Amino acid sequence: MISPLIPQQLNAPPCLLLDWGLVPYSQAWEIQQKLVQERRDKPDLPDVLILLEHPPVYTLGLGAKLEFLKFDPSQTQSELHRVERGGEVTYHCPGQLVGYPILNLRRHQQDLHWYLRQLEEVLLGVLEVLGLKGSRVPGMTGVWVDGCKVGAIGIKVSRWITMHGFALNVCPDLAGFGQIVPCGIPDRPVGSLEQFIPGIEVDQVRSILVAEFARVFAVEIVRTQM
């Protein structure tokens, strides 16, 4: 069953929303790959936004350096994946809202820098709605509040179809970030919205993020199930 979630401007293209809870990283990765392949084969299929949380997991971008791990990957019990996105190592865990847009950029703008800035704009919009002053750092990708990185972005684009995406630290246990050099940036701390809005929970942020995504990408969000 498919139903509109957020009314948008007339004739806005649809974007299917898969709004899930806690999903293992490997399962979400497999689903992304399936959705991307379907859209390579049939470019007219609608865009998709997957929203979820992950159990604790570390991921490395395709060219990420192992030196940014503070543990031996051959000796750890931590879940670790090297994936096809750009960027260095990052950490996912409950309390972090992760978004995987599967977009055909031919419908939007065929420009990877534009796409990265648009994802940042979504996160900045969420922060503004919550009354927080978010910012960018020149030469870096992501979103900061008071010098703390609260939003990370890493993408893969193939034939102008996107995968991977963004992670917004709402109320995660940040201890896992202490085992890595997050995004390869040693001198800028990782933070969460909870540090600035005590008691905030992921479910309070979901609808705001969906609305901001619809606004920034000028799409009509349509809730669906797989």
From TrEMBL:
<dbReference type="InterPro" id="IPR000544">
    <property type="entry name" value="Octanoyltransferase"/>
</dbReference>
<keyword id="KW-0012">Acyltransferase</keyword>
<dbReference type="InterPro" id="IPR020605">
    <property type="entry name" value="Octanoyltransferase_CS"/>
</dbReference>
<comment type="similarity">
    <text>Belongs to the LipB family.</text>
</comment>
<comment type="function">
    <text>Catalyzes the transfer of endogenously produced octanoic acid from octanoyl-acyl-carrier-protein onto the lipoyl domains of lipoate-dependent enzymes. Lipoyl-ACP can also act as a substrate although octanoyl-ACP is likely to be the physiological substrate.</text>
</comment>
<dbReference type="GO" id="GO:0009249">
    <property type="term" value="P:protein lipoylation"/>
</dbReference>
<feature type="site" description="Lowers pKa of active site Cys">
    <location>
        <position position="149"/>
    </location>
</feature>
<keyword id="KW-0808">Transferase</keyword>
<dbReference type="Pfam" id="PF21948">
    <property type="entry name" value="LplA-B_cat"/>
</dbReference>
<comment type="pathway">
    <text>Protein modification; protein lipoylation via endogenous pathway; protein N(6)-(lipoyl)lysine from octanoyl-[acyl-carrier-protein]: step 1/2.</text>
</comment>
<feature type="binding site">
    <location>
        <begin position="152"/>
        <end position="154"/>
    </location>
    <ligand>
        <name>substrate</name>
    </ligand>
</feature>
<feature type="binding site">
    <location>
        <begin position="85"/>
        <end position="92"/>
    </location>
    <ligand>
        <name>substrate</name>
    </ligand>
</feature>
<feature type="binding site">
    <location>
        <begin position="165"/>
        <end position="167"/>
    </location>
    <ligand>
        <name>substrate</name>
    </ligand>
</feature>
<dbReference type="GO" id="GO:0005737">
    <property type="term" value="C:cytoplasm"/>
</dbReference>
<dbReference type="InterPro" id="IPR045864">
    <property type="entry name" value="aa-tRNA-synth_II/BPL/LPL"/>
</dbReference>
<feature type="active site" description="Acyl-thioester intermediate">
    <location>
        <position position="183"/>
    </location>
</feature>
<feature type="domain" description="BPL/LPL catalytic">
    <location>
        <begin position="43"/>
        <end position="221"/>
    </location>
</feature>
<dbReference type="InterPro" id="IPR004143">
    <property type="entry name" value="BPL_LPL_catalytic"/>
</dbReference>
<protein>
    <recommendedName>
        <fullName>Octanoyltransferase</fullName>
        <ecNumber>2.3.1.181</ecNumber>
    </recommendedName>
</protein>
<dbReference type="GO" id="GO:0033819">
    <property type="term" value="F:lipoyl(octanoyl) transferase activity"/>
</dbReference>
<keyword id="KW-0963">Cytoplasm</keyword>
